[in-house]
Structure formats: structure tokens, C-alpha cells
Amino acid sequence: MKRFATVALTALAPVSWGSTYAVASELLPPDRPLFTGVMRALPAGLLLTALARTLPRGAWWWKSAVLGTLNIGAFFPLLFLSAYRLPGGVAAVLGSAGPLFVVGLAALLLGERASLRTVLAAVVGAFGVSMVVLTAEAALDPVGIVAGMVSSASMASGTVMTKRWGRPAGVGPLAMTGWQLTAGGLVIIPVAVLVEGAPPALDGSALLGYGYMMLINTGIAYWLWFRGIGQLSATSVTLLGPLSPLTAAVIGWAALGQALTPVQLVGMALAFGATVAGQLAVARGAQSFSSAEKNDRNISMDLSNERVGR
């Protein structure tokens, strides 16, 4: 039951990220994705760091910079470059490949053994997302494809390294989230200045949109995400990723008047079903692994008792 609650809370992060397109298109200045990335990450990072009242120490200065760059500073600009060079559907499909990157990296760096069911869930999830977002007119641009794949690999690497390094003793996920968002926002600033120039003038709608993006879409969402990484396996967390494009599709239908075709509905069912199946497969694998560990301990205790008896 505790694991279910943790998964459900962590799932709120990609659900929140699914609202990004609607908020950006309806409330934010156009053609300013990098400035939006800074406004999402830096204020939220500074706020969470101030609330946590804890700064990095020793090696955690550079570790926070690395994680912030992978999860935020490199991920956001590459994601936006992919979105500009490719139709939104193609960019979303490339993003849905993230779980496959995490499965491979988690096996190499964390020793997490992915079952065939887990890999199939990741593949079916990506396929379901493609049915939701791809159109027949989708064009392929090499630069956009590379940017999309590297952005997925960057976020996947950040997820796995966040799990591998853990947290310093006595430091909670609030501080860790604040450090990473601050570092990521600082990385984006020079890129935003070079590419987009001076910040745009902001009206009331833009301030409302950026306030939502900073507090809900980034601050709380990333805190839930990194909290989930600390309590679940990296594979379990990343398999929740397809919820983001699914949420975007639902919001587009409900709030923006976008139609959903039967093919898209089937794709949504496949992607959601794969997400649930993936969580069940990971949970089953964790239980089997725990049982094996318990059996090993029992055997060791039995052997020790034999030695004592002798």
C-alpha cells in the first residue's frame, strides 16, 4: 500500500508536465522557450533551497551541478530545440524513449535487473504514445531527431545518477530538488541570452502562467519526481513518463477543443495500460528479489547455527 501511494504521488509529476503545452500556448509569450525554461527552473530552485535552508557541501556542489545540468540545464534546451525542429508528435515519441534509456543505464550503473515484461511495457508505452501524437504529415529533421534523442538520454542519465548518488546524510528531497533546479536554471541563462536576447515584457497572463509553471509544474512536480526516485527504483519512476503526453492529449481535447480519433484513443489505452503493467512488473520483480535476499539470509543463518552447534 505504501508503494502504491508513492507511485501515485510520483505520477503527479509527469501529469503536471503534460499541462506545459496548454499553459505555454495560452498564457506565455511566443517563441521564448529558453526564457520559459529559466523562469521555470531558477525561481523554483531558489525558493525550494530557501525553504530547505540547506546548501550543498563538499562534493555535492559539483554533483548538484552535474545532476542539474542533466535533468534541467541540458534537457530543457535540447527538448525545445527538438520541438522547434520537429512536429510535436515526433518530439513526444522521442521523449517516450526515455524509459528504454533508463532500463539500460539502471542495469549498468545500479544493478537493477529489468524483466522482459518491464522492457515490453516500455516499448508498448512508447508505441501507444506514437499512436496518440504522430500524424501522417510528420516530417523528420536530423538535427531535431538528434536533439530529441540526446534530451531523452540526458534526462535518463540524470534520473539514474540521482538514484546512484542518493542524498547527503540529513538532506531531504526538498533541498536536492532546489539545488538541481537552481543549477539547471543557471546553465540555461547564457544560452537564453545568446539565442533569444533580452527578456520579453510580461503581462498579467504571462505572470500567471509563469507562476503556475514555477510553483506547480516545476517546483512541486520535480520535488515529487526526485522524492519518488529516492523511494522507488529508477525503472519504476521512468515508466511513469508516458503519462505526460497522455495528459497533454486529454487537456488538448477537454480545454482546447482538439479532437481525439479512434486511433488516438486506442493509443492512450495502450500507453496507460503499459504504464500500469510496467509498475506491476517492477513491483513483482522487487518482491522476488527481496524474497531471494531473505532466503540467502536464512541459509546463512542456518549455516551459522550449524557451526555454533558443532
Description:
- The structure is a single chain.
- With 310 residues, the protein is mainly α.
- The protein starts with a helix and ends with a helix.
- The radius of gyration is 21 Å and the shape is globular.
- 80% of the residues lie in helices and 0% in strands.
- The longest helix has 48 residues, at 262-309.
- Mean pLDDT is 85; it is low at 289-310.
Principal-axis shape equals globular
Head-to-tail CA distance between termini: 44 Å
Indicate the low-confidence ranges by residue numbers: 289-310
Strand element count: 0
Strand content: under 5%
| Helix share bin | over 70%
Largest sheet: none
Given the structure, what is the number of helices? 14
Structural class: mainly alpha
- The rounded Rg comes to 21 Å
**Strand/helix succession:** HHHHHHHHHHHHHH
Q: What would the average pLDDT be, to the nearest integer?
A: 85
Note the topology:
Elements lengths: L1 H16 L2 H8 L5 H20 L7 H14 L1 H11 L2 H8 L2 H12 L6 H18 L8 H24 L7 H24 L7 H28 L2 H5 L4 H12 L7 H48 L1
Helix pairs in contact: 1-11, 1-13, 2-11, 3-10, 3-11, 4-9, 4-10, 5-6, 5-9, 6-8, 6-9, 7-9, 8-14, 10-11
